[in-house]
């Protein structure tokens, strides 16, 4: 059976390393730090870790205990994210994956940046004041897409 991206990455601990590495960079970043005045809290890091773990096939904790898609959406509304901030966010995620020692095989990283590209573009659109948004939806489930790990039959 093909493992989930969550299992391949190394489970919740690996996602926590990723999110810590990401927000450590965000706190030093000229374009992104203004979105988190006073720094990125432990609570925010813990919540976002649970979001990512769920999306990549881990426990559905963000849905079960944190308010699911609707809560995530509410946090992005009216942030008015700019295209430069979105691009920096996406680049910073890739760097954080290296910092955190996530698997760097082509299959995993293709799926990873696919989600980052998709999610950041949605976040930018949903963050614009007056945007028409999808109000309710499940937390997305991301998979390997067209390039799962090769398993000779
Ligand atoms: C793959 C893309 C993204 C994902 C998965 C994501 C995930 C999340 C989640 C789950 C939360 C809520 C945390 C909680 O429950 O407490 C959140 C909040 C937030 N996100 Fe994102 N986000 C993405 C893209 C972005 C982008 C592109 C930006 C800005 C450049 C951004 C800025 C923020 C900010 C500032 C908050 C906190 C807002 C507040 O405290 O009210 N996010 N994000």
TrEMBL record:
Keywords, sorted A to Z: Heme, Iron, Metal-binding, Transport
CDD domains: TrHb2_O-like
Gene3D superfamilies: Globins
Highest taxon of the lineage: Bacteria
Record-given protein name: Group II truncated hemoglobin
UniProt source species: Actinomycetospora chibensis
């Amino acid at each position: 059976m093909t493992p989930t991206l969550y299992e391949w990455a190394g489970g919740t601990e690996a996602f926590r390393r990723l999110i810590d590495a990401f927000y450590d960079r965000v706190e030093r970043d000229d374009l992104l730090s203004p979105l988190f005045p006073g720094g990125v809290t432990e609570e925010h890091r813990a919540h976002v870790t649970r979001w990512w773990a769920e999306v990549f096939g881990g426990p559905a904790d963000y849905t079960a205990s944190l308010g699911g898609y609707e809560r995530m959406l509410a946090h992005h509304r009216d942030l008015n994210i700019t295209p430069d901030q979105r691009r920096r966010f996406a680049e910073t995620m890739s760097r954080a994956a290296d910092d955190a020692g996530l698997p760097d095989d082509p299959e995993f990283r293709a799926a990873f940046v696919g989600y980052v590209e998709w999610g950041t573009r949605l976040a930018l659109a949903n963050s614009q004041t007056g945007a028409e948004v999808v109000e309710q939806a499940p937390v997305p489930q991301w998979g390997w897409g067209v390039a799962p790990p090769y398993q000779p039959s």
